Amino acid sequence: MGTTSSALVMLFALFFIERLEFICSSANSNVSCIASEREALMKIKGNLTDEANRLSSWVGKDCCTWKGVGCSNKTGHVVKLDLRNPIPATNGPSTAYFDPIFKMNELSGQVSPSLLDLNHLHYLDLSMNNMQISNSLGSLKSLRYLDLSSSISDETIPPHLGNLSRLQYLNLSNNDLRGPIPDTLGRLASLTVLDLSSNNLNDSMLYSLCNLSSLVHIDLSDTSHRGAIPHCLGNLASLSILRLNYNQLQGPIPSEMGNMTQLKELDLSQNQFEGPIPSEIGNMTQLTELHLNSNAFAYEIPNSMRNLCNLRVLDLSENKFTGKLSTSVGSPFGCIHNSLEDFCLDDKSSDGDHKHVDESNVADETDFLWFYTGIGPVPGWVLGGLWHFEFQEVLEVCILPVH
Ligand SMILES: *[C@@H]1O[C@H](CO)[C@@H](O)[C@H](O)[C@H]1NC(C)=O
Ligand SMILES: *[C@@H]1O[C@H](CO)[C@@H](O)[C@H](O)[C@H]1NC(C)=O
Ligand SMILES: *[C@@H]1O[C@H](CO)[C@@H](O)[C@H](O)[C@H]1NC(C)=O
Ligand SMILES: *[C@@H]1O[C@H](CO)[C@@H](O)[C@H](O)[C@H]1NC(C)=O
Ligand SMILES: *[C@@H]1O[C@H](CO)[C@@H](O)[C@H](O)[C@H]1NC(C)=O
Ligand SMILES: *[C@@H]1O[C@H](CO)[C@@H](O)[C@H](O)[C@H]1NC(C)=O
Ligand SMILES: *[C@@H]1O[C@H](CO)[C@@H](O)[C@H](O)[C@H]1NC(C)=O
Ligand SMILES: *[C@@H]1O[C@H](CO)[C@@H](O)[C@H](O)[C@H]1NC(C)=O
Ligand SMILES: *[C@@H]1O[C@H](CO)[C@@H](O)[C@H](O)[C@H]1NC(C)=O
Asked: What local confidence, expressed as pLDDT, does residue 324 receive?
């Protein structure tokens, strides 16, 4: 999953940095802090436990020079507050909790209601801390960027977030949030990035996202979602990344999803999807990663998949497909074959965990490469017993050319 997503996140990071260019947080600024906002920041600091002394620069009059605080050089208002834990979670947020240096750098405690006095904030990042926010952030009407990932312990997604009509980036991942996605989120018309991954949103309310036509990136992986993908999700024609993996979603893939022609990464793995892959998948010609593994998809793989010429990662393992596959003309793998080849060769040099089909194992008298995709027939003369098991385990099925 790595490259596309980090490139995209980077893109957004640059985008936001650019948008916030007017921020001054350095000493050459000539606008000093607005007194009431300095008071608010002091109250926020006063309520937080700061073991690593991260807020030691929060002294003196000019709050615009304090670490993590940014002011508009036009109005002097605080427009940015970035209190993200600076210690990177090397192996993902879940392991960070066992890292003593990370823990020490957490800010913890109740976020003072004075946060709401900073009502010109465009950018708020409280991620990777251990905070409670009991007040409605819905009044911070100027917010464009809100990152509360791995930081809060609220019970549910606060419905008032739907009042943030300018919000472009919302990250609530890894917070153990419960209950449904509030339908008020369907009002966030400017939203381009929504990450709710790793929560417990057991009620499927995906349809509340269907009108958010600016969305480019949705991550709802590992959110305990049930039910079917609503047909209206196909309205989201600008989507580039859609991750719904590791849920309990059911039913077929709606054919309307073929309207998502900008999609670069689609991850539906580890659900209970069934039925055939709709032939409309061939309309997603920008796809570079397609993860459909560990579902109950059945029938033959549609021939339209031969149109997916940009595909670099394809995982169809652990399904119930039938039929045989080959890389020759007339098979579902028209040009996929070539693009995947590059991926495999690149990746082989690194020491990732993924097992790949090894070129040297391929019988050299054939120009077909078949691979195991589920319960369908396995041509033993190519695969052999060993391969049979390998393909069940591989995360990324790569097809290499046969000489
Ligand atoms: C604010 O500062 C930036 C650089 O720090 C500068 O490019 C911009 O012109 C300034 N804006 C105003 C309104 O002074
Ligand atoms: C700040 O503003 C004062 C006048 O209000 C001016 O004399 C001074 O040069 C300015 N400093 C900078 C760094 O722009
Ligand atoms: C936050 O700080 C204020 C004083 O500024 C205090 O009255 C209040 O009890 C504190 N709240 C918490 C939850 O610590
Ligand atoms: C936010 O929206 C809710 C409705 O979802 C409304 O009742 C509430 O007054 C709004 N709050 C703010 C602070 O704008
Ligand atoms: C959301 O936050 C998590 C943890 O900080 C981060 O790993 C993830 O990349 C963020 N999601 C997006 C889409 O930026
Ligand atoms: C979701 O979980 C809550 C308790 O956490 C429960 O009351 C509710 O019935 C669950 N909803 C579904 C659809 O399972
Ligand atoms: C989407 O927009 C349409 C038309 O404005 C509206 O009728 C519908 O209720 C909206 N759906 C959701 C889930 O907000
Ligand atoms: C979406 O796809 C369906 C069928 O797959 C089609 O009937 C519909 O017109 C498409 N909608 C848009 C907005 O392109
Ligand atoms: C989408 O796919 C379907 C089925 O493969 C095809 O009939 C249709 O023409 C495609 N639409 C577009 C816009 O490519």
From this structure: 52
